[in-house]
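Data card: per-record layout.
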Amino acid sequence: RGPWADGCDADCVREWRELAAQRSSLGNAGRPQLLVAVGTTNWLDLVSNWVASVESVGCTNYVLLGTDDVIVQSLRKVGLPMFRHALMPASTHVTHLGVRFRAALWMRRWQRIAQLVERGFDVLHSDLDAVMMINPFTAQLAPELERADVVASHGTSHEDWLVCMGWLWLRSTEVVRRQL
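The structure for this 180-residue chain is written out next.
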């Protein structure tokens, strides 16, 4: 699909794929699996709680997408797997959750996730307010995920949003890749 309008050129895309490959684990079907979440500086406390819950259940195959330089630098300093997920020009610091911001966030998440699915990754996207009670990739849940191409949570309905990404599983199958 080529470089994105948000400034992520071929080197940026390669960096994203490499980070994802390093952090993923192989699922039952032999495809890499990855848990993904997105955060801004405004959500720093949520990021910390989310990481604590994910790690407490033994899930290590996750990556965080940071929407601004502050969160990316802050969390990289403590060793968390961060990728700069540009929504606005790098010089813009997002301080509100306006409609344009939410729409940009929604679309960019889809772009990043679609890129992984197209490369053969099974992806579970979680909002930062989702607390992990079990590792979604362990034996308790993995067989259920392996039977479904798409699992999506039901959230608040918005007229421009078709699928809630609060809990979204996409298995890298031919059908899913065609739909993305």
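Known properties of this structure: Residues 1-6, 88-96 have pLDDT under 50 and may be disordered. DSSP finds six helices and seven strands in the chain.

See the next section for split statistics.
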